[in-house]
Amino acid sequence: MITISTANVNGIRAAARKGFDSWLAQTTADVVCLQEVRAEPHEIPAELREVQGWHPLFAPSSAKGRSGVAIYSRVEPIESRIGFASTEFDTSGRYAEIDLPTVTVASLYLPSGEAETERQVEKERFMAEFLEYLKAAKSRAEAHGRELVVCGDWNIAHREVDIKNWRTNQKASGFLPHERAWLTRVFDEAGYVDVVRQLYPQGPGPYSWWSYRGRAFDNDAGWRIDYQIATPGLAKLAVSGKIERAVEHAARWSDHAPVTITYDV
Question: Which PANTHER family does the UniProt entry name for this protein (predicted)?
Fold first, then answer.
């Protein structure tokens, strides 16, 4: 068995002050993927930078205080890589991956965008490049008898069941028609599987992000934008999954909740 968890920490230093370090100490996951770390390795608290029993990989952004992904693995990786051979995005702290004996695990922080702005144009450039990478990565994995799972904050809710207030968000970045169509291409054209939706086919949700504004968390007015998207061979080995939703608003250490899945490999 291998259990993989992914979470956008919304700043690892802030999350540590709110209880992320306790969560990491207690998790039964074998691999933990983080997004929006927003810190250089030397700025990360020592208790999270060098954690007994974990082998961490940090991929910070060249823009100080922004983005950043990380992967913690209990098994020392055979190999690790930062970026996906993108001239524009490889220093932006948005992608890293590690090779374990039979599985490659990646942490992704896809740009959030903002409709009708340059930020949205940047997001779409990322999406175009990353789709081609996903296709090539799946082919390489298959050629070497390996599986791949891309965990992280994809910043797109795929279907109406993936967002509570879908009617009022149809013009918002993260639920734009062409973004949703792009994610469909990840599944249908590139051949990946949305593992949580495979485990929970009906919906609504389970949501993984709730705005800090208003009473979104209390009313479960969430979005499902954090995914584990896997090659079919690994996806069919998923035996259980959960969203680790905090028991109450005050217990949250991020506006996202960990998405944790166990695979019988």
Answer: EXODEOXYRIBONUCLEASE III
Q: Is 109 an active-site residue?
A: yes
Q: How many domains does the chain have?
A: 1
Residue 10 known to bind ligand: no
In the block, residue with structure tokens 């997001």: 123
Catalytic residue among 109, 192, 207, 227: 109
255 labelled binding-site residue: yes
Share of the chain above pLDDT 70, in %: 100
**220 has catalytic annotation:** no
**Domain housing 92:** 2-263
Is residue 226 annotated as involved in ligand binding?
no
**Residues 149/194, Cβ–Cβ less than 8 Å:** no
pLDDT at 261 over 90: yes
User: Which pLDDT score is estimated for 214?
Assistant: 87
Rounded Cα–Cα distance for residues 134 and 149 (Å): 10
Q: For this structure, is 212 an active site residue? A: no
> Cβ neighbours of residue 96 under 8 Å, at least 6 residues apart?
57, 59, 69, 70, 71, 80, 81, 82, 83, 106, 107
Q: Is residue 42 annotated as involved in ligand binding?
A: no
Residue 193's domain is classified under what CATH number?
A: 3.60.10.10
Pairing of strands 69-73, 238-243: unpaired
Q: How confident is the model at residue 100, as a pLDDT?
A: 98
